[in-house]
Design goal:
It is a single chain. The protein is of the alpha+beta class. It has 3 helices and 15 strands. Helix content is about 15%, strand content about 35%. The structure holds zinc ion.
């Protein structure tokens, strides 16, 4: 059953009330609406817990899409109490983890601004993220860190603009990823815009992001690895660069 994905309109929604609409054989749960992000586009799905009317908790280990993008399945850890269809409960996202993922995900967008090469892959993590670029140039990681932190400190707004799948198809040039498919299939696609009037960047993306670049906080490029002749893997970590002795 299609779900109302509340996080798409509010990345800062960490709890909501919802009704169970389906329980899968493997224990996976569907709700009428959810604030949980499901794994896609290189960003891992949310973890957290469900609070039942009697106050007991069901701990969720992951969130994934079903057969289509409008199905979101909340997967409990093993040996949790079974739920019944029609039950109302409160969903709680593990906010500390999700906020780190939002900061990291936004940092990946900033990296694609600093390094304007085609992206061949990306994985957002709560401690480290990686972005792969199709490039042969050699870049100094400390220079990249300095450019990233300049964008962070300039406090650019980060917001969504919605376009239709048809508009995206008519403007293929706005997609930076070579291998990562933009989030089409829902009829509308979210463009993640950075800076007033998208002055810094605009990129189709279905993930969750912070509202302003300063919220990304201190980050640095920990490593730039050569992955094949024309591929460079950048690793982004939180905190100040580690000074090498
Ligand atoms: Zn994104």
């Amino acid at each position: 059953m299609p779900v109302s994905a509340l996080y798409r309109d509010d990345f800062y929604l960490s709890t909501c009330e919802a009704v169970v609409t389906a329980v899968h054989d493997d224990g996976g749960i569907e709700f009428d609406q959810t604030c949980f992000y499901a794994t896609s586009g290189g960003q891992p799905g949310d973890t957290g817990f469900l609070e039942r009317a009697d106050g007991s908790k069901i701990v969720l280990g992951q969130t994934r899409h079903g057969e289509t993008k409008d199905i979101i399945v909340h997967v409990p850890l093993p040996d949790q109490a079974p739920l019944t269809i029609g039950e109302t409960m409160v969903l709680h996202v593990d906010w500390a983890r999700r906020h780190k993922l939002m900061r990291m995900h936004t940092a990946c967008h900033l990296l694609s601004v600093v390094c304007s090469y085609p992206i061949t892959g990306a994985a957002v993590g709560e401690d480290e993220s990686r972005v792969d670029f199709d490039m042969t140039d050699t870049i100094d990681k400390d220079e990249v860190t300095a450019k990233l932190m300049a964008l962070v400190e300039q406090k650019h707004p980060v917001y969504l603009q919605w376009i239709t799948d048809e508009e995206l198809a008519a403007n293929p040039g706005i997609v930076k990823s070579k291998n990562v498919r933009p989030p089409v299939g829902l009829g509308r696609v979210s463009l993640v815009c950075i800076g007033e009037n998208s002055a810094i960047d605009s990129q189709p993306c279905g993930g969750t992001h912070v509202a302003e670049t300063q919220e990304v906080g201190q980050i640095h490029i920990a490593k730039i690895e050569k992955k094949g002749k024309e591929n460079r893997r950048f690793r982004i970590r939180f905190g100040a660069p580690v000074v090498e002795a």
